[in-house]
Write a structure and sequence with these properties.
This protein has 281 residues and is α+β, with helices and mostly antiparallel strands. It folds into 2 domains: 90 residues; 148 residues, no CATH class. It contains 11 helices and 4 strands; from the N terminus they run αββαααββααααααα. The chain has a 4-stranded antiparallel β-sheet with strand order 1-2-4-3. Strand 1 and strand 2 form a beta hairpin. The radius of gyration is 26 Å and the shape is elongated. The relative contact order is 0.08.
Length: 281
Amino acid sequence: MNEENPATAITPFERIRRTNPTGSEFWSSRDFAQVLGYTDYRNFEAVIEKARTACFNSGQRVEDHFVEITEMIEIGKGGQRAVRTVMMSRYACYLVIQNADPAKEIVAVGQTYFAVQTRRQEVSDEEVEAERRLLLRNEMKKHNTQLADAARSAGVIEPRDYAIFQNHGYAGLYGGLMAGDIHARKGLKKGQQILDHMGSTELAANLFRATQTEEKMRRDKIVGKDKANKTHHEVGAKVRRTIQELGGTMPENLPSADSIKKLETNKKKALRGSKKKRNQE
């Protein structure tokens, strides 16, 4: 007998799920209200407003999860009427169901469905972020070595001079903050490396800073410590301006992440476990 997954296929919430041309899923507030048994949509709008507030309080961008549109609905005899509808993400639906009338039996079903599905998505997102961080951190190590080589060619030889050179790059990217300032701002402990506690977005910004500085120094044949420092600062500042122009979060305001060493250890354990399993088969 073919049994369906109770967390997905048999629920009415899965049946009203839609996807846009890019494959992203969403739910219509009109469909959602009908499934939950709200005969007067105005009552359901109050639930949506509570969910919006919960979304804002959780630190999420409300507009990423609740998108209001105008659509036409049939009103009989071939007529149509424009109505407001909210297109909601899975997370938005989770918040809505938490604020819906608990006396409705279908609400309990929805709470189970979206709690399970939201957690699955969270786990998936965490795994993707971990892989991105591992990849970018390894790239950062490689390109920092190449940047150090370019700096040496420009005359940055002594360790103290190279630390100053690196601080110029950080200052450009972090709005004047140097490595020690970033370390303190992120709340890191003594001995913890700032690069090891960056999320993928912050690592990507620093990787771009490093690669572009190296290329510019080699291309422009930069010679002299002062010119090398100036170049690194200018590139860092340019990356910062780009982030600002795109409406991104400034790197100093991004949260610190768990140590990359923890992810590396977990990945090694998983690989050993997978190898052991294959050998036993």
